[in-house]
């Protein structure tokens, strides 16, 4: 079990590192082109790269599974990313956008309380509380700052709700052997269609032929392929509370990305917030380990004559 827990933590740390890269990616992309246009090409290029790996399995899939993953993808990618990206373009700082959009763990925990057969334990609530405290400490210095209009701060909250819904729906689906590249391709293809309409309302979909635009799209492949790939992989092997709770580390790490890439000042409580968020993640993983142990004991007792 310690080895399993250690590998789970490593996957979650990798998830956070790749996921948080998206916020500074959009901080750079906002200076190159409209963020919705960048998002469209981000999804379209990622789907194109995945197509050769997904084609064989894709031809055999029932339409029901394709429809399910397309709906989940529209929520998790287009519904989550586009509002946060637009908020950053309008002037919301990357750290604050990360804070608002990564409130999804609380929404997931609340959703688990409402769904039959799932619940959020006291220890999981403690871990989520520590994580949220860490986020507030890390980003607290900049919460009152910004040049964006007031309504722009609602956009990342809508993204958080979309990701929470996608997480809960995915966690409720029966286990399947769907390959991860196929799952991501369906989700990204559906999201590309959504972004065709959203970005098309702002202007032509023709990409600017500049090195800056190309670099922005290529950089955003990190959170698209690795970040979301690790998110769904962790969700297959863990509870939605623990997996979504790992995202509480994203705002402090996004601040580190912004400091390293754009020389943005670090919030005074960033390091302390990072430690609180890490403590919350460890608490969530410990709660999951105890739950798995309890299920194993019940199973062994049930097998005794």
From TrEMBL:
User: What residues form the membrane-spanning segments?
Assistant: 39-58, 70-88, 94-113, 125-145, 151-169, 178-201, 213-235, 242-260, 266-287
Short name of any one Pfam family annotated for the protein: EamA
Q: Where is the protein localized?
A: Membrane
Answer whether the UniProt record assigns the keyword Transmembrane helix to this protein: yes
The secretion signal range is none
Q: Which GO terms describe its cellular component?
A: membrane
Keywords from the UniProt entry: Membrane, Transmembrane, Transmembrane helix
Assign the protein's first listed, main location to one coarse class. Answer: membrane
Task: Give residue ranges for domain EamA.
Answer: 13-138, 151-285
What InterPro entries does the entry give?
A: AA-Vitamin_Transporters, EamA_dom, EmrE-like
Tell me which stretches of the chain form a coiled coil.
Answer: none
Membrane topology summary: Multi-pass membrane protein
Disulfide bond is among the record's keywords? no
Q: Which family does it belong to?
A: Belongs to the EamA transporter family.
Q: What is the protein's given name?
A: Drug/metabolite transporter (DMT)-like permease
Organism annotation: Pseudomonas oryzihabitans
């Amino acid at each position: 079990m310690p080895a399993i827990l250690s590998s789970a933590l490593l996957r979650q740390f990798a998830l956070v590192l790749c996921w948080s890269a998206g916020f500074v990616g959009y901080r750079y992309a906002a200076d190159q082109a409209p963020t919705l246009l960048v998002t469209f090409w981000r999804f379209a290029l990622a789907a194109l790269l995945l197509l050769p790996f997904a084609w064989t399995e894709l031809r055999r899939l029932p339409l029901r599974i394709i429809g399910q993953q397309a709906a989940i993808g529209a929520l998790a990618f287009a519904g989550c990313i586009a509002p946060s990206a637009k908020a950053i373009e309008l002037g919301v700082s990357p750290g604050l956008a990360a804070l608002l959009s990564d409130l999804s763990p609380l929404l997931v925990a609340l959703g688990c309380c409402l769904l039959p057969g799932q619940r959020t334990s006291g220890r999981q609530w403690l871990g989520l509380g520590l994580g949220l405290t860490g986020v507030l400490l890390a980003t607290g210095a900049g919460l009152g700052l910004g040049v964006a209009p007031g309504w722009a701060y609602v956009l990342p909250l809508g993204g958080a709700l979309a990701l929470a819904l996608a997480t809960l729906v995915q966690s409720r689906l029966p286990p399947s052997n769907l390959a991860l590249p196929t799952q991501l391709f369906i989700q990204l293809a559906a999201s590309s269609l959504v972004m065709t309409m959203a970005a098309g309302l702002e202007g032509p979909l023709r990409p600017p032929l500049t090195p800056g635009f190309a670099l922005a799209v290529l950089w955003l492949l990190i959170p698209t392929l690795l970040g979301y790939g690790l998110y769904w992989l962790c969700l297959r092997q863990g509870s939605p509370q623990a997996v979504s709770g790992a995202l509480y580390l994203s705002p402090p790490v996004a601040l580190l990305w912004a400091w390293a890439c754009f020389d943005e000042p670090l919030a005074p409580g960033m390091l302390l917030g990072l430690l609180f968020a890490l403590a919350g993640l460890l608490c969530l993983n410990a709660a999951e380990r105890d739950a798995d142990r309890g299920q194993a004991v019940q199973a062994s007792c049930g097998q005794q004559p």
